[in-house]
Amino acid sequence: MALIPNPGGNGAFPASITPMPNQVTVQDNYVNFQDIAGGFNQWAQQYLPELYEQEVERYGNRTLSGFLRMVGAEMPMTSDQVIWTEQNRLHVAYDNAIVAAGANSTITVTITPGANNPATSAIREGNTILITDVSTGLLSAKALVTDRTSGATTDGYTIVAVLYETTSAALAAGLKGAGNVVKLFVYGSEFPKGSNGMGGAIEPGVTTFVNSPIILKDNYELSGSDAAQIGWIEVATEDGTSGYLWYLKAESETRLRFEDYMEMSMVEGVLQANVNANTQFPGGAAFGGPGAGQQIKGTEGLFAAIENRGNVFQGFAGAAAPGSGALGDFDAILKNLDKQGAIEENMLFLSRATALDFDDMLAATNGGYASTTAASYGLFDNESEMALNFGFSGFRRGSYDFYKTDWKYLNDATTRGMSKQIDGVMIPAGTSTVYDQMLGSNIRRPFLHVRYRASETEDRRFKAWITGSVGGAYTTDLDTMRVNFLSERCLVTQAANNFVLFKGA
Q1: Which helix (H) or strand (E) covers residue 483, if one does?
Q2: % of residues, the chain, pLDDT over 70
Q3: Cβ contacts of residue 25 below 8 Å, gap of 6+?
Q4: Chain-centre distance of CA 1, in angstroms?
Q5: Cβ neighbours for 489, distance < 8 A, ≥ 6 positions apart
Q6: Pairing state of beta strands 500-503 and 311-314?
Q7: In whole angstroms, how far apart are CA 216 and each of 10, 161, 197?
């Protein structure tokens, strides 16, 4: 086969090459792309640009869940409500008795029913009691109950007691005056020789609590076309998922957000206080069908349980001199815990600001409230170079041990970190023994734990499923992939009288 000369050259082969007079970029040298709007994109967009393929994690790990896994457990339940019973106090005591009359040797006291005073009296004839004034708590008298008269339920009952000791003028004015409010408790009994036994008996008192689970839902939905879209940026999520499909990130973030909702609902949940037409689920698309018209019931979360049945401390201070500031505040908390269950080990989950207040308090205590040159390094194994580490994770005060950590939920700017209402919680460690109404026996449970609906055929702790016709699901003819999430759960806060909620001033 003969070679054909280049018609554009001089007839020889190879053809001569005549360079262009100017070195310029000519648009025709590159493939053009015209978008729908009629404009031309830059030629370089046809090739892989200089991109960082990894996302910048500017907020670090954004998930908040894990608090309940640290302090409690998760257990199944099969009913619409969980019921538990807590023991009442062992000893007989009343804190809102009213002095009806007082003579030189006797005192008459009326005990009215209330939150701490049952309508039926546990004080019996023959009991010995100690009576204390409420105003100062410094005046007291011991007496023997000689008579008890029961009135109507609203009137309570009246006891007459003979004083053991001579009545002073101060005692007569501050304790025995008619209308004075007093406290009293039973410390024993006394009977003469040959007398009858104690009349009546005391029935153990218990208090029953109940909480109901709520149903949480969420979903993520995308079209089949978007599910097949490949990007240049590799997406990675907190749960380890990665790839170049954007929907992987969106689905994963929805999942992680839902897991946070599961925990935050257990912390923030409140019971519905009003039951009326305005608190019913509407008949819209989200609540239509069987759900429309049902009452919003809510659930008792951690904060609500402590506020209703526990201890609330408002305005925890920073470091100061002994007996004041944070140390004084903390000692006040300990004195109150002494009056409760006196659980020796407790966990502190605090906001950053409150955690620093605790560190300042402990650092000042360790330094003996003196200058740094004369500071004590006892909490740092007597090594001066270790004294710069003021991040106390555990400490002991009185007979109590405390383990302190930051609670991310209280610091995040998109959750409780946006307000100063809640500064932290104190949660007793270990377990409590309670009577379970469902099992009919005493059981040991963590003070704080989650109950979720489950049976042999249905586990609603955390459900995730796909509907549509994309991503392997073929449930409908809709060209979408819908990832659905559901959980049904509630929080059980037992012995809330041992919990402390720190609130801002």
Answers
A1: strand 480-493
A2: 69
A3: none
A4: 89
A5: 213, 214, 216, 262, 266, 450, 451, 452, 453, 460, 461
A6: parallel
A7: 82, 58, 59
- Tell me which residue of 113, 91, 109, 90 sits closest to 100, measured CA to CA: 109
Q: Per-residue pLDDT for 166 more than 80?
A: no
Place of tokens 């807590």: 86
Angle in degrees, 0-180, between the axes of helices 352-366 and 325-338, rounded to the nearest 10: 100
Which residues have CB under 8 Å from 468's CB, separation 6+? 221, 475, 476, 478, 479, 480, 481, 482
Burial 59-77 (b: 16+ CB within 10 A, else e): eeebbbbebbeebbeeeeb
Burial class (CB in 10 A: 0-12, 13-18, 19+), 207: exposed
Helices (H), 310-351: 325-338
Tell me how many degrees the CA angle 238-240-242 measures, rounded to the nearest 5.
105
pLDDT tens, position by position, 199-222:
888 877 788 899 999 999 999 888
Residue 133 burial by CB count (10 A; 0-12/13-18/19+): exposed, middle or buried?
Answer: buried
The helix or strand, by DSSP H or E, that contains position 441, with its residue range, turns out to be: strand 441-446
pLDDT in tens, 105-115: 888 898 876 54
Task: Please say whether the beta carbons of 252 and 234 come within 8 A.
Answer: no
Beta strands at 400-406 and 345-350: parallel, antiparallel or unpaired: parallel
Q: Residue 253: phi, psi to the nearest 5?
A: -65, -35
**Lookup result for tokens 């002073």:** 168
- Crossing angle of helices 246-268 and 302-309, in 10° steps, is 10
Instruction: State how far the alpha carbon of 488 is from the alpha carbons of 261, 263, 452, in Å.
Output: 12, 12, 6
Cα 212 from Cα 160, distance rounded (Å) = 45
Sheet holding 82-87, edge to edge: 206-211, 82-87, 431-436, 441-446
Whole-model pTM: value is: 0.76
DSSP-assigned states of every residue in 104-129: SSEEEEEE--SSSS-SS----TTEEE
Give me the domains of the chain, ranges plus CATH numbers: 67-79+209-302+433-493 (no CATH), 93-193 (2.40.30), 314-423 (no CATH)
Q: Which H, E and C letters describe 129-197, residue by residue?
A: EEEEECCCCCCEEEEEEEEEEECCCCCCEEEEEEECCCCCHHHHHHCCCCCCEEEEEEEEECCCCCCCC
Cα-flanking dihedrals φ and ψ of residue 377, to 5°? -115, 30
pLDDT digits (tens, 9 = 90+) for 298-313: 999 999 999 999 999 9
Q: Return the bridge partners of 314, or none.
A: 503
Q: Which two tokens stand for residue 428?
A: 């007793």
Average pLDDT for the chain: 76
The amino acid at 122: A
